[in-house]
Amino acid sequence: MSSTSRRADGPGAVSMSLDALLHASRALAPEARLVGPPGSGRTGVHGVTLDSGDVEPGDLFAGLPGKLRHGADHAGEAAAAGAVALLSDRSVSCLPTLVVDHPRRVLGFLAARLYGDPSRALSVYGVTGTNGKTSTAHLLAAGLEAAGHRIGLAGSLETRVPDRSCRPAVRTTAEAPAVQRLLARTRQAGGTDAVLEVSSHALALSRVDGTRFRVAVFTNLSPDHLDLHGDLEQYYAAKASLFTPDRCAHAVVNVGDPHGRRLAAETRCPLTTFTSGPEPADWSAADIHADVDGTRFRLRGAGVDREVRLLLLGPHQADNVVAAAAALAAGGADVAAALRGMEQLASVPGRLERVDVGQPFLAFVDFAHNTGGQHRLLPFLRSLTRGRVIVVLGATGERDPEKRAALGDTAARDADLLIVTDESAHSEDPAELRTAVADGARRSGQAEVHVEPDRRDAFSLAVSAARPGDVLVVAGRGADQRQTSTRGSRPFDDRIALRAALLQHAAPRPSAERPPRQAVLDTSAPPTRDDDDPRPTVEDPA
Ligand SMILES: CC(=O)N[C@H]1[C@@H](OP(=O)(O)OP(=O)(O)OC[C@H]2O[C@@H](n3ccc(=O)[nH]c3=O)[C@H](O)[C@@H]2O)O[C@H](CO)[C@@H](O)[C@@H]1O[C@H](C)C(=O)N[C@@H](C)C(=O)N[C@H](CCC(=O)O)C(=O)O
Ligand SMILES: Nc1ncnc2c1ncn2[C@@H]1O[C@H](COP(=O)(O)OP(=O)(O)OP(=O)(O)O)[C@@H](O)[C@H]1O
After folding, report:
1. The complex's ipTM?
2. What are phi and psi of 332, to 5 degrees?
3. Is 319 touching ligand 2 by the criterion CB < 6 Å?
4. pLDDT beneath 70: ranges in the chain
5. What range defines the domain where residue 86 resides?
6. Boundary of a domain, candidates 343, 367, 392
7. Which spans does this entry mark as compositional bias, Basic and acidic residues (predicted)?
8. Tell me, what CATH number does 243's domain have?
């Protein structure tokens, strides 16, 4: 491939003939056959993609059956863009085709071969679980870099290779060709390690097939993504599929989580356990103190017994640090140096990120978008105030209809005031999403519930309602950059919009002539706590 590659994550492929790819496919798919004119087997392949819009000359185009369409229907466009062959479950006349029954199951391995099996030349850390993947991955990255490693990183927030600027991620785990290209680029840039967030979608859709993990980490499991998996058992099975000896050399599992205990009992990989609870484990976090200035706890594990002081907020970050430390120990890294790097990590974007313009209450943006995340987030916020907990939330369209009411219900049980607003409804009717969340919230009968469709107005409403000493959180979107609905897609960063609302409605003003608040809710009641002391330090509430 040329150095003018359009792909932002660039070159790195080796050249293979179709015959060699056919041979490699048969190890996984004995039924594999090549359909095409005589001599097709000698065609040289230099790269692979599954998107006709991404084809570069010399590529193998994987035409996959999808939910909406069949990729093979785009083979003509792929050929016009320079694809030299098709991988699919059906043959086409315009390209020699490597025909297999389940092309996704072969794609990752072929991509790995085409990019030189990069995971075998790196220490690859994979992180899976419902919550904590991004935080743990960023802690691992900070730790590895502090210990002198050169790393690649791919997850929900960003993709990066050593010495190159970051790119925003498209999704948590990219499709297999992009995963292999990232690993190849990391290796090419002299990288030693890579950290990958591994979503359950990725496991169900074979996106990390062909990747050999030095260490795989399981954080926790709670209901999410059941639209894809069907039920919790299938969701667990997707996660557990990472922890097999053919995929990972070492499993690092949270035995403080019920599904983690099951996984620890079931995996056949060499195992390291961790917990922030009372269970016996190889690594543990104890005496967790979390407040608005940071999180400290006692970390104990192989050869380590020391206090950790994090800048990151929330007791759940202790779980993520102990996970990262256990993984680094399993991977042979210098844990002491890595911990110093983790302690310096100032924030993970959109994860309990504080927004402060001098207002007399605490305000945060967080990415809790399932009940598991809410169960860790909201008790912590409650611990920060003797005033009220105000939550702004919504539900994303085209995802998990069943979790919408549950999100409202859980938030209403732990909050005092809930403002339900729009997130990205995508093709769905935003009013139906709001109704589902608000109905769930009202069912619990606990918090005061308001519905404000416009997201900016919802922020203003929440800020206007906040009294000194309260805690306000905008939960569910974290650092997402866009809001998408049938009316289009607009840039929307919760952190910027919340700051604007705070500046408009709650920032201290130099003049005594502070304009009256545009209060839509009743803010006349006196604060329920001592304003001078809004943020007590508490024990881990989780
Ligand atoms: C459920 C899911 O993950 N679906 C993925 C799947 O879609 P699909 O099978 O329905 O594809 P399709 O649109 O019918 O198209 C079929 C094939 O034709 C190809 N095609 C299509 C059109 C065209 O012009 N040319 C072309 O080649 C497509 O690349 C695809 O290979 O294959 C597509 C091609 O790669 C993915 O883009 C798509 O991810 C969608 C966009 C998605 O949103 N996935 C999310 C839910 C996701 O993966 N999330 C996880 C977890 C997030 C979390 O933890 O919260 C993630 O890892 O990000
Ligand atoms: N270890 C943990 N246990 C429970 N909840 C957590 C944990 N870590 C983070 N959270 C909560 O989950 C939210 C998402 O965290 P993070 O982005 O690290 O997880 P994730 O698994 O990458 O999520 P996603 O897959 O949706 O990107 C956080 O904002 C926080 O509310």
Report:
1. 0.95
2. 85, 15
3. yes
4. 1-13, 165, 509-542
5. 16-114
6. 343
7. 528-542
8. 3.40.1190.10
